[in-house]
Design brief:
heterodimer, A: 405 residues, alpha/beta, FAD/NAD(P)-binding domain, 5-stranded parallel beta sheet, 30 strands, 19% helix, 35% strand, globular, B: 476 residues, D-Amino Acid Oxidase, Chain A, domain 2, Arc Repressor Mutant, subunit A, 5-stranded antiparallel beta sheet, 24 strands
């Protein structure tokens, strides 16, 4: 069977659900594709609270956040294809997919990629040692515990203090798994400060900053993890070795944007987009963690909502950007999203500084925007809103940060 | 009954070769999977046969083995990618080694080679270190997946009336008249008329059970980096010039589009030491960067692993009949063992059994030489895949997103005997991709559990003891 539609959204996590809803509300015919049996993505397994404070102005759990979007979706006439895997997206705007009913194709006018991210795996860190079972990414451990009622460990060490790592430290502890500590290679935590407090300090779980795993050992199953302190260049400091006797190592060492199967647009490493979520291929829009990794699902949903709207307008030929302005990272900026700005539309900039500042001034040149940020750190995204502007002299925008006292 | 002890690539192919003549062939493997020892941790190279020292058994069987892989790939439905290989020289000393290799090739009767100059090499391999001066190019060299060869050869036994036993570790041998009583660790015993010992690292120890003293085997570790499919580093296998000890640390394209860098060569004490080391990995990194300076060790790595070579003092295969008869030892199968394996199988049957032992063998008329494989649906054409989904909707349910493996393929593997996560991985490639099983391992666990009624707590990653799940979070 062949389908035709205005907008296809790939991925029904927080970003994709919001995109499908807004595209539909903007009057487009929408098909939402999800490869798992259920929508919601990682929200389904995030049973803790802290979601929705920005997007719904409520403190929700992951499943509740998803439910809220799901209810909205059900009021629309979006076609949802679950357990459906996209095999190919071609430049002639065709989407080939497979599911239980066979292999089918959709001809679309625009596409929103909301494909999220995957966890970086321990194996890719090339840390030496034995071939053992018992090493899990935090998301996998979370899925076993929260969705499958399976306990993957008795005693665990956590590598990486990203938010999922911190949340899993608490989760494992609450389920009776001894957590020996959280090891972080950087001199500061990778996750949000509120998570360091609520997940580690509240439970007396030690955080080893400037430490890393140097070796894993075990006979078939992990039973020993070697940890050493590192200097500012991440070189191991001799004679600082600690040995942890644990049967699991849970890793939270970064997320990698998932861009497959679209491989013909600009990426770095996620999709490079404009403030209207448009990629280098004008009919393809992208939102959420497949562009850059966001701190909060609230931001992801907000981006998805925007991407859905512009994708619908594009499909109806009501949105075609004229000239885009490049916005680039300056001094002390590690992450800057988006990469281009359509000055006729408003923008939300998402910024990560590259080091910890007690107090930082973020400057957007030449727009003359300056904001002061107390305790700016790489783990917390800074947002700056830009109004539409008209100034034909502006060819490039730069964002910089510097410390102030 | 003819018993083959050792289900690596060599044992499996020998068992298959004998099975063409005799129905009652039993293959016994100590581990819980076929091809999971020396065979697994290997560069996977089908060598050209040009560089083994003339007069060795290695030289005799390597080129012959290379030539047998075409037929083998058709019969066993395995992939052999004839990517070609370069031995590259960066200075005058190394250039003279290339000249020696050419001389060696002539002595070994290998005619399929070319000597290439700088421009010719760089045209074929643009990412190679630009200081290259000369290469010995062998177009018939290639790569395969060694464990797959072993697994498919073992499957051929099951199709043709033979038997495959896993988790059978041989502990005692008794001579009974002209036969051998083989006693395994699980207390089971079998009476065999003829035994082939193809026990890889342990062939010397197993030979002792038959009263034979073989050249001592010592393990030499090789460590590897596996790179993802994002960057195409080379089109062919790149060797540095060899040393008397090894062929050196290489860069190898794998059958499924990834790349290997390695191996180094370090003697280790234990035959069970498959660990990677910080020093070893650093050595591989430095050496492979000399070949391909753009290898990205910061973000393109999928995993690291180590394999062990069964090395002997003479650095040659030892394949002969034991002193007390009715047993053949196939030992010291170091590089190029994978390449030589199909030729070793013929050597054992056609030379040792037939000519040396004078055992009359007659080809079976009912032998089925073709072994099918569970088709990897994403690689078939869409019409075929559609038809499969019509018959079984699970062929449309994607379980492994990276390597695109469906539920049907995983269930087929379970039907063929897969019981561990690694069994599934090596049979279907599910969980073998860039996410290393993050998305699919929990689903695979569930499918194995549902199909076999083994509880998730009892499902292993690979060998016994490699558990994944400790218990239920709470009993329901």
């Amino acid at each position: 069977m062949k389908y035709e539609t205005d907008v296809v959204v790939i991925g029904a996590g927080g970003g994709g659900l919001a995109a499908a809803i807004s595209a539909s509300k903007a009057g487009a015919q929408v098909i939402l594709i999800e490869r798992e049996d259920d929508s919601g993505g990682v929200l389904n397994q995030c049973i803790h609270n802290g979601f929705g404070l920005h997007y719904f102005r409520k403190d929700l759990t992951g499943p509740e956040f998803k439910e809220s979007l799901q209810e909205e979706l059900e009021k629309t006439n979006v076609t949802v294809l679950k357990s459906t895997f996209v095999l190919e997206v071609t430049q002639d705007k065709k989407i080939l997919f497979v599911n239980k009913n066979g292999i089918n194709e959709i001809k679309t006018k625009s596409l929103v990629m909301a494909t999220g991210a995957r966890e970086r795996h321990f194996n890719s860190l090339a840390i030496p040692g034995d071939r053992v079972s018992g090493i899990f990414t935090a998301g996998v451990a979370q899925k076993y515990i929260n969705l499958q009622n399976l306990k993957p460990a008795n005693k665990a060490l956590i590598l990486g203090s990203g938010d999922i790592g911190l949340i899993m430290a608490r989760r494992l502890h609450l389920e009776g798994i001894e957590v020996e500590g959280v090891v972080e290679i950087l001199p500061y935590p990778g996750g949000l400060e509120r998570n360091v407090q609520q997940c580690l300090r509240d439970y007396n779980i030690p955080l080893y900053l400037s430490h890393t795993v140097t070796r894993v050992e075990g006979d078939k199953r992990l039973n020993r993890v070697y940890v050493s302190q590192v200097d500012e260049n991440r070189n191991i400091i001799p004679n600082t070795e600690k040995i942890f006797e644990v049967d699991a190592l849970i890793t939270s060492v970064g997320l990698i944007p998932s861009i497959k199967p679209v491989e013909f647009v600009q990426t770095a490493p996620g999709f490079v987009t404009s403030n209207t979520n448009q990629t280098s291929e004008d009919w393809i829009f992208a939102a959420g963690n497949c562009t850059v990794v966001f701190d909060l699902v609230d931001f992801v949903a907000r981006e998805g909502e925007k991407a859905g709207k512009y994708a619908a307008l594009y499909a109806k030929k009501e949105y075609l950007p004229q000239e885009l302005i490049k916005i680039k990272k300056g001094e002390n900026i590690n992450i800057l999203h988006p990469s281009y700005i359509d000055p006729e539309e408003k923008s939300k900039l998402y910024i990560r500084v590259s080091k910890v500042f007690d107090k930082a001034e973020i400057v957007v040149e030449p727009l003359g925007i300056k904001i002061i940020e107390e305790e700016a750190r790489p783990s917390e995204m800074i947002e700056i809103s830009l109004k539409p502007f008209q100034d034909s002299k502006i060819k490039e925008i730069e964002v910089k940060a510097h410390g102030i006292s | 009954m003819i018993a083959v002890i050792g289900g690596g690539i060599v044992g499996s192919l020998i068992a298959r070769e004998i099975n063409k003549y005799e129905k009652d062939v039993y293959l016994f493997e100590a581990k819980n999977g076929i091809g999971m020892g020396v065979t697994k941790g290997n560069s996977g190279i089908v060598h050209g046969g040009y560089d083994d020292p003339p007069g060795t058994l290695r030289a005799e069987l390597c080129y012959m083995g290379n030539r047998l892989y075409d037929e083998l790939s058709k019969e066993l439905s395995i992939e052999v990618l004839r990517a070609g290989s370069h031995v590259v020289a960066f200075n005058n000393e190394e250039v003279s080694i290339i000249d020696e290799i050419e001389e060696n090739a002539i002595n070994n009767n290998v005619k399929e080679y070319k000597i290439l100059d700088k421009n010719e090499i760089l045209e074929m391999e643009p990412l190679l270190n630009q200081n290259v001066l000369k290469s010995f190019y062998c177009p018939i060299a290639g790569v395969t997946e060694p464990w797959e060869v072993a697994m498919q050869a073992a499957r051929s036994l099951e199709i043709n009336g033979g038997k495959v036993f896993k988790e059978k570790k041989l502990v005692e041998v008794n001579r009974k008249n002209n036969k051998y009583e083989l006693i395994f660790e699980d207390a089971s015993s079998y009476l065999a008329d003829l035994v082939v010992n193809a026990c890889g690292l342990y062939a010397d120890e197993v030979a002792k059970l038959f009263g034979d003293n073989l050249p001592f085997i010592f393990p030499v570790k090789g460590e590897y980096f596996l790179f993802g499919k994002d960057i195409k580093y080379t089109n062919s296998v790149i060797f540095p010039t060899p040393t008397p000890l090894t062929k050196g640390c290489l860069v190898v394209p794998t059958v499924d589009g990834g790349f290997l860098a390695g191996p180094n060569a370090r003697g280790v004490k234990s035959k069970k030491d498959f660990s990677t080391t910080a020093e070893g990995l650093l050595e591989v990194k430095e050496k492979s960067l000399k070949l391909i300076p753009s290898l990205d060790f910061s973000k393109n790595i999928v995993k690291v692993f180590a394999g062990l070579r069964p090395e002997t003092q003479k650095k040659d295969f030892y394949i002969d009949v034991g002193e007390h008869g009715n047993v053949i030892h196939v030992s010291g199968i170091r590089s190029p063992g994978l390449t030589a394996a199909p030729a070793i199988a013929k050597y054992v049957v056609e030379f040792l059994i037939t000519e040396k032992m004078h055992i009359g063998l007659r080809k079976r008329e009912d032998y089925i030489s073709h072994v099918g494989k569970i088709p990897h649906l994403v690689e078939t054409n869409l019409n075929y895949w559609e038809k499969v989904i019509e018959e079984d909707s699970e062929a449309g349910e994607m379980i492994c997103f990276c390597n695109k493996v469906t539920k049907k393929e995983i269930k087929e593997a379970i039907k063929n005997g897969a019981r561990t996560v690694d069994d599934i991985k090596f049979a279907t490639r599910a969980s073998f991709g860039e996410c290393q099983g993050s998305f699919c391992t929990s689903k695979i666990l569930k499918i194995i559990s549902e199909e076999t009624h083994i509880s998730p707590q009892d499902i292993q990653q690979n060998e016994k003891g490699s558990w994944i799940i400790a218990s239920e979070v709470r009993s329901i």
